[in-house]
């Protein structure tokens, strides 16, 4: 058995045709070459000898060429020629010259179909190469976070709306800092290289500010300044461009302090995170006071305020971009992640993201209109010691004592030596 062709080897037209086309229609179109050949056989056997089915047989390989692989196109071509020869033998026409001309025509059309398939495959290889470069750039800008950080389990996912586009304006980052684990999930307005540049600016500013700023409000202020500076740079490069305030970024910042069963949020115009409890309940962490996205500081000044919420043991915090909430079904109904996940229980963040991505794809029939960036964080059920290397590095301290395993009634206020944080895993 031959190797299954990789996704990149599939014709580009076939992948492009998926976008905006219902799944049932795609399946029907893919089966069209076989339908044409079967129809030609039935027509040829039932119709008088002077009727021809050559148009059906000629169309079969032409339809297969942009939709299927080279092997499938060759199969359709050979089947069309074989059926044409078989019908000639079956009918034994008096004018064999005309019959042979039809067979030759079908053969010539089949060769043209093979050429079309080759061109499509070459174009697909170029797209695959471009996609590989895009994926490398995405990994550089949005590296996958570690599965465990600061005593928490973390999983991230980036799902592109289009098969051939892997770079967009959605972003996420996780940073272990002296102030706890800090997280950002955001969505830069726009697409293409301009959005990628803005993503790089936001991620770079976040990683620096997360280490240095003692509060989330300070981190947000640094991000605001970085985006305004980037907007001014672009305005100088393109003086005739539109207002630079169009380059805004919606974002939600989260902080999970070491040893505390809470998390702090600062939302700047972004979809509210969800808190999934261990018993299947889900709550939305909506901001008390809505705020404008980052990068719109020129429109006014308002104080940022981080909100603190409980983070019970065994629960998970889900942050997402609007590609999730704006996914629609055939009737135009938006996807509701809270309704879709209520009552479900997940062992780890990876399982949660897998289920969410699958449910969004089911709801939208695989026709998502926007990229999705997802980040899930789980707080474990047992308390144990956790050494945060970044705290040691910045405080210049090292931990020298061990916590006996299984000690009962142990809490953060009971014992906390210098340089050590008590975390929940």
TrEMBL record:
Q: A Pfam family this protein belongs to?
A: SpoIIE
Q: Which UniProt keywords apply?
A: Hydrolase, Membrane, Transmembrane, Transmembrane helix
Mark the transmembrane ranges. 69-90, 99-116
Q: Name one GO molecular function term.
A: phosphatase activity
Xref: InterPro entries: Bact_Sigma-Reg, PPM-type-like_dom_sf, PPM-type_phosphatase-like_dom
Q: Which residues form the PPM-type phosphatase domain?
A: 152-379
**Can you say what this protein is called?**
Serine/threonine-protein phosphatase
């Amino acid at each position: 058995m031959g190797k299954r062709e990789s996704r990149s080897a599939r014709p580009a037209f076939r992948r492009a045709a998926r976008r905006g086309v219902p799944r049932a229609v795609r399946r029907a179109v893919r089966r069209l070459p076989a339908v044409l050949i079967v129809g030609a056989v039935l027509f040829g056997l039932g119709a008088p000898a002077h009727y021809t089915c050559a148009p059906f047989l000629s169309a079969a390989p032409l339809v297969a060429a942009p939709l299927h692989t080279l092997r499938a196109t060759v199969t359709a071509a050979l089947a069309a020629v074989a059926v044409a020869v078989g019908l000639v033998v079956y009918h034994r026409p008096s004018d064999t010259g005309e019959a042979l001309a039809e067979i030759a025509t079908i053969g010539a059309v089949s060769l043209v179909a093979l050429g079309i398939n080759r061109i499509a495959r070459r174009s697909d290889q170029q797209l695959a190469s471009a996609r590989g470069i895009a994926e490398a750039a995405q990994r550089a800008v949005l590296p996958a976070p570690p599965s465990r950080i600061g005593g928490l389990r973390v999983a991230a996912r980036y799902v592109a709306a289009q098969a051939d586009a892997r770079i967009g304006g959605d972003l996420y980052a996780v940073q272990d800092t002296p102030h706890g684990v800090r997280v950002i999930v955001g969505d830069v307005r726009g697409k293409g290289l301009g959005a990628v540049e803005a993503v790089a600016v936001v991620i770079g500013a976040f990683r620096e500010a997360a280490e240095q700023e003692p509060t989330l409000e300070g981190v947000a202020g640094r991000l605001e300044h970085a985006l305004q500076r980037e907007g001014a740079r672009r305005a100088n490069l393109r003086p005739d461009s539109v207002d630079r305030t169009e380059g805004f970024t919606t974002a939600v910042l989260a902080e999970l302090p070491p040893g505390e069963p809470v998390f702090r949020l600062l939302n700047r115009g972004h979809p509210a995170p969800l808190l999934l409890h261990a018993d299947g309940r889900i709550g939305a962490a909506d901001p008390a006071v809505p705020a404008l996205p980052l990068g719109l500081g020129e429109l006014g000044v308002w104080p940022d305020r981080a909100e603190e919420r409980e983070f019970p043991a065994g629960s998970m915090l889900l942050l997402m971009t609007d590609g999730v909430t704006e996914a629609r079904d055939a009737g135009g109904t938006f996807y509701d992640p809270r309704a879709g996940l209520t009552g479900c229980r997940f062992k780890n963040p990876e399982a949660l993201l897998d289920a969410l991505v699958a449910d969004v794809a089911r709801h939208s029939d695989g026709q998502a209109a926007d990229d999705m960036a997802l980040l899930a964080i789980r707080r474990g059920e047992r308390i144990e010691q956790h050494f945060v290397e970044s705290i040691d590095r910045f405080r210049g301290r090292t931990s020298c004592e061990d916590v006996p395993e299984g000690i009962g009634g142990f809490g953060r206020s009971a014992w906390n030596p210098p340089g050590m944080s008590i975390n929940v895993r």
